Amino acid sequence: MTVESEILPGVHPEKEVLLRNSFLYRTKVIPQGERIKLCIQCGTCTGSCPLSYAMDITPRKLIALFRAGDMESILRSKSIWICASCYTCQTRCPSLIKVTDILYALKRTAMEKKLFNKNIPTYALSYSFMKCIYKYGRLNEAQLILRFYLRTGLWKIINLIPLGIKLITKRRIKLTSEKIKAINDLRKIIKKAETFELPPEKEELAYIPEAVGYKAVS
Amino acid sequence: MKYAYYPGCSLHTVNNNYDKSCRAVFNALNCELVELEDWNCCGATIYMSIKEITALAVAARNLALAERIGYDIVTPCSSCYTILNKANKYLKSNNEVFDKVNLCLKEAGLSYNGTVRVRHPLDILVNDIGIEIIKLNVKIPLIGLRIANYYGCQIVRPEKGFDDRENPMSMENLFENIGAEDVYFPYKLRCCGGMLMTTYQSSSLNLTKEILECAQENGADCIATTCPLCQMNLEGYQNKINRIYSTTYKIPILFFTQILGVALGIDVGELGLEQNFYKCDKLESLYKVSLNHQK
Ligand code: SF4
Ligand code: SF4
After folding, report:
1. How many whole angstroms from its chain centre is CA B177?
2. Is the Cα torsion angle B46, B51, B52, B53 positive or negative in sign?
3. Quick one: average pLDDT of A76-96?
4. Are the C-beta atoms of residues A30 and B93 closer than 8 Å to each other?
């Protein structure tokens, strides 16, 4: 965790402000995303999470760290990539915080700011996935897995051979991808959408709620 | 009743038995599914973790296509169901995002006004067609079949949809009414790990094992599922689980439409039952007995 002793309570260091703004901008897409302010630290999310045992920072702690002004630790954590998006936490949160959606926003921020360990397999999977969609418009599992292992180490695919054979004998694998007819239209949509992805600098600054950081607790 | 059918990618590949059985069941109940012309991948949970507007625009293309033909979407895949619903909700709640997405769609000559509803076949069977009508069409009552009804995470969450978010009962109601028995199954909403099976496998195997264990302990003949990814994780990795945890599971993991299809007297070939890894002996014997009766 980064502790900058000379910084006054309630004032965030520059880097923190940057990361925070980017994250808060991304929560704006989420319906009622601003409810993150209302966390009562009850721990229902962590207690309900089937994967919290494998996380380095549990969901409740992620929100506590956000309040305390340590975005960097959050974005570097393994937790946000371990979440299986089962929505249990989001369903049960008594403050109606969109916990799962917030974890998505964190993933996107981590990707944008390149603040994650490149060894995290989820990144490779997402990247391979994106390529498949751009190319064909539909997904072919066999291809996705192949692309994924090409990025993360092809030797690991040995483990999948028995399952693969079984699926082939059951006629459940297609090796060729289906391509949609309007693939060019889809590519146009994706290209256009990508121009909207980055947060506009000005708007970022306009969106700094007062009620977060040390100010909220002191 | 007519619906725009959105199978989703996995129903066209790894889980084509879900696709077949779904179409067969709806056909047997005189409900028409029109496959959405030239649909694209909904983006799944993965796209949302990289890019938000792109994820929404990719999903919205399908919604726009359905709006153009004027039908609601029905999609059997839990993940597609959640994603398309989520896109709908995000767009409607935020005008700025809605405008941006429409600008993207315009590039392809499409537009979306937010009128399409996204539904799950289970919802339609239980709430639109109705259990009474299904009961009238049952040819083989599922007497003595003990089912563990497994919903998985994404069909009743995160928003309140067609059933309770902590204890959904649609499948139990459906199957009990046609003769089956539901076993005590507190893990019916427990996460199977989803895509973690490729990324953090040991965690995911652990979750999957607990689900299988719970079904076995409570004496289920099979697990009924509504999600292609859950089916793959529970079925395809049973061998691996047996090896790692020294267990001997051989639990058939069937799609709920396959079980319903047998009850409706549909030919097992049409339901793709032989494509499942583990045979459900109980279900087969029900089917065989009725074949003998017919002779
Ligand atoms: S369940 Fe909600 S209120 Fe409770 S700690 Fe988690 S996010 Fe905060
Ligand atoms: S959505 Fe993620 S963080 Fe929330 S309970 Fe599920 S796995 Fe845990």
Report:
1. 20
2. negative
3. 91
4. no
A170/B203 CB distance under 8 A: no
B215 or A170, higher pLDDT: B215
> Tens digits of per-residue pLDDT, B79-94?
999 999 999 998 998 8
Token pair belonging to B190: 């427990």
Q: Name the strands in the sheet holding B222-225, side by side, starting at the edge strand that comes first in the sequence.
A: B181-182, B146-150, B222-225, B253-255
**Model pLDDT, residue B230:** 92
Of the candidates B127, B272, B147, B140, the residue with the CA atom closest to the CA atom of residue B218: B147
Closest CA relative to residue A140, chosen from B14, B255, B195, B201: B14
Give contacts of A185 with chain B, Cβ < 8 Å: 61, 107-110
Distance from CA of A137 to the nearest CA of B (A): 5
CA-based nearest residue to A131, from A120, A139, A142: A139
Q: What is the pLDDT of residues B50-72, one digit of tens each?
A: 788 888 999 999 999 999 999 99
- Looking up tokens 């969106």, which residue turns up? A207
Q: How many CA atoms lie within 13 A of A218 on its CB side?
A: 9
A146 to chain B: closest CA residue: B198
**pLDDT > 50? residue A218:** no
Cα B235 to its chain centre, rounded Å, is: 15
Point out the least confidently predicted range of A56-65, A164-173, B87-96, B232-241. Answer: A164-173
* Pocket mutation for ligand 2, best pick of A88, A97, A102, A106 (most atoms within 8 Å of C-beta): A88
Residue A9 predicted with pLDDT over 70: no
**What pLDDT shows up at residue B24?**
94
What DSSP assignment string belongs to A176-214?
SPP--TTHHHHHHHHHHHHTT-SPPHHHHHH---TTSSH
Segment B165-172 shows an average pLDDT of 91
Alpha-carbon separation of residue A86 from B190, B193, B237 (angstroms): 8, 8, 19
Q: Is residue A136 within 6 Å of ligand 2 at its C-beta?
A: no
Distance CA B180, CA B235 (A): 22
Q: For ligand 2, atom 2, which residue shows the shortest CA distance? A: A83
In sign, the C-alpha dihedral spanning A150, A156, A159, A161 is positive
Q: Is the CB of A80 under 6 A from ligand 2?
A: no
Give the C-alpha separation, A18 to A109, whole Å: 11
Task: Give the Å distances, CA to CA, from A122 to A95, B277, B279.
Answer: 29, 28, 34
> Residue A200's pLDDT is what?
54
Contact B87, B61 (CB under 8 A): no
Count CB atoms within 10 A of the CB of residue A52: 20
ipTM: 0.88
Flag whether pLDDT at A77 surpasses 50.
Answer: yes
In 3-state terms, what secondary structure has residue B224?
strand
* Phi–psi pair at B91, nearest 5 degrees: -65, -45
- Mean pLDDT within A108-120: 81
- The per-residue pLDDT for A7 is 53
